[in-house]
Design a protein that fits this description.
It is a single chain. The protein is of the alpha/beta class. Helix content is 20%, strand content 28%. The protein contains 6 helices and 16 strands. The strands form 3 sheets. The protein has a 7-stranded mixed sheet with strand order 6-5-4-3-2-1-16, covered by helices on one side. Strands 7-8-11-12-13-14-15 form a 7-stranded mixed sheet, with helices on one face. A two-stranded antiparallel sheet has the order 9-10. A hairpin with a 5-residue loop joins strand 2 and strand 3. The longest helix is centred in the last third of the chain and has 11 residues.
């Protein structure tokens, strides 16, 4: 087994290498992403997880799936949309469901947000979601996607006991640092990976503010620069 590896690719895009060596890309948005580090562009992937249909989370999913042969895991409407774009390796699911893919256990959770894409008009792409992934070594990560704070995060903690949470902190369109700190406490995680921040001026929340709100909690904040990797 290897160490878990997390690379931030800007905004809410991440490359995660699991202890078993699987490469997971979360919410791939590289084209037009002002914080995307071109030098870190992924060239391989085993899985692509898409939380919802907004451009800043799905734009590069189809092209990456085709170029890498990765399997895309997404809610039903995104599955149908990507299939219409010629993506072949797809695993559709919906909230509350759990699947086994390439040695990983993936559960789709709720998220409080909207989901659509501009493609000759607004295309409805189902509801926003999050993912709980149980890794090969039993470690559990929770990728919240875009969401507000919601009480059922306490159920996510009770049911899945995540160790690491990827939480949006930018505010305006998602939680800010204050409510993300509450989410982290509810989830009972040891580490928070902040996301959906530092991309546009409207996203005012910062990892430093999150740290302040978590002071004394014992929860660490992973502060990465785009393109930086932590193991």
């Amino acid at each position: 087994m290897q160490n878990l590896s997390i690379t931030w690719l800007g905004h809410s895009s991440f490359r995660v290498r699991t202890p078993g060596g699987k490469e997971i890309l979360f919410d791939p948005w590289y084209t037009g992403n002002p914080s995307f580090p071109e030098a870190a562009r992924p060239t391989q992937a085993d899985l692509i997880l898409v939380s919802h249909g907004h451009f800043d989370h799905i734009t590069d999913a189809a092209a990456l799936a085709k170029s890498t042969g990765a399997t895309v895991v997404a809610i039903w409407e995104i599955y149908r949309y990507l299939a219409s774009k010629g993506v072949q390796n797809l695993e559709p699911m919906n909230k509350g469901g759990t699947i086994q893919v390439q040695g990983l256990r993936i559960t789709m959770t709720d998220a409080r947000h909207s989901s659509s894409f501009e493609d000759n008009g607004v295309v409805y792409l189902g509801a926003a979601a999050g993912f709980v992934i149980t890794l090969e070594n039993g470690q559990v990560i929770y990728f919240a996607g875009d969401t507000s704070l919601f009480g059922d995060m306490k159920l996510i903690a009770e049911l899945y006991k995540p160790d690491i949470a990827f939480l949006p902190i930018g505010d305006r369109f998602t939680m800010g640092p204050d409510t993300a700190a509450i989410a982290a406490r509810w989830l009972g995680v040891k580490l928070v990976v902040p996301m959906h921040c530092a991309t546009f001026p409207q996203l005012t929340g910062t990892p430093e503010q999150l740290e302040q709100h978590l002071a004394g909690s014992g929860i660490d904040v992973l502060k990465l620069q785009p393109g930086e990797t932590a193991e």
